[in-house]
């Protein structure tokens, strides 16, 4: 079992910097939890507190029901894989993987068995006699994973383990890490600033900013139901578009109104906004939630001028000048648009997001 609980945890560094503030989080046994956020938001600090590499300045950190605030790293039953892999250059791959077990004086036959099993799972058996300098980046990454696997920890911690790999290898290693989680049946806590990595790997994602949790949820929650504009903007490519306007209720329905746009809000959204006539809001439209075919009628159409066209393989990104704002939409590659064209796009009204204009909190 490895359930990890943060109860009002604080981290202040020696220079007084408050890196993690009032963190309350319950990581379930066998969960794959991803800590996601921009550089400096406190992800690594949070992971290091679980590992015992950073002490906790306030609150309680529990493994199952045991307080571990003061438990040294080697007594925590966690294994960590770093971005740099931290391999020993003069040791063979076998000895790099075996090192932790050798230090703990595990029986030689047992070490041999565990190293070979891990190497087989990671498909690096043929590399066991090599040194790290004789390996590619992806192979080194596997050795680092193997070293953590043979310890059979209750908790697997990973800090941006794929960021030194090229794009194609990153995608295939993602799939392998996911499989590894399924086969190991242990709790994984994984740090990344890469939204795609978080969305593919996580059971749940914790989005952080400036030491504070901005949302915790499944990938679907985080992408489809962002609780604030920070989370909405952090995920999505190109990022979500915002247009400021006002809510207008009339004749039993509601509209989002801007000088150059009137969108009819569907009932599912209207029902959550009762009594908010005249409220200043920030509308969010995800880049992919528009369509040119079947113009949606006046209450679902946005008009603008194309000011850039960026092909991205199967799709294209349209830069769209809307009343002085530059919006970006993702449309099919077959739509032939040139810079300067006037375009009307129909908006998927059921996928709109609405936020408070000042606080950025979701109204839905
Ligand atoms: P990155 O993706 O860049 O690694 P992160 O989200 O993992 O970022 P942390 O490494 O947790 O961020 O750092 C959080 C904040 O704490 C940063 O502003 C960082 O500068 C600060 N910080 C980290 N280590 C220390 C330290 N030893 N002393 C003082 N401040 C620190």
Automatic annotation (TrEMBL):
Keywords: ATP-binding, Cell membrane, Membrane, Nucleotide-binding, Translocase, Transport
GO CC aspect terms: ATP-binding cassette (ABC) transporter complex, substrate-binding subunit-containing
Domain ABC transporter: residue ranges: 4-235
Pfam family, one: OB_MalK
SUPFAM superfamilies: MOP-like, P-loop containing nucleoside triphosphate hydrolases
GO BP annotation list: carbohydrate transport
SMART domains referenced in this protein's UniProt entry, alphabetically: AAA
Superkingdom assignment: Bacteria
Gene Ontology MF term list: ABC-type transporter activity; ATP binding; ATP hydrolysis activity
InterPro entries, alphabetized: AAA+_ATPase, ABC_transporter-like_ATP-bd, ABC_transporter-like_CS, ABC_transpr_MalK-like, ABC_transpr_MalK/UgpC-like, Mo/tungstate-bd_C_term_dom, NA-bd_OB-fold, OB_MalK-like
Record bears the keyword Iron: no
Signal peptide (from-to): none
CDD domains: ABC_MalK_N
Record family assignment: Belongs to the ABC transporter superfamily.
PANTHER family (UniProt xref): MALTODEXTRIN IMPORT ATP-BINDING PROTEIN MSMX, TREHALOSE IMPORT ATP-BINDING PROTEIN SUGC
NCBIfam families in alphabetical order: PRK11650.1 (NF008653)
Listed name of the protein: sn-glycerol-3-phosphate ABC transporter ATP-binding protein UgpC
Taxonomic path: Bacteria, Pseudomonadati, Pseudomonadota, Alphaproteobacteria, Rhodobacterales
Gene that encodes the chain: ugpC
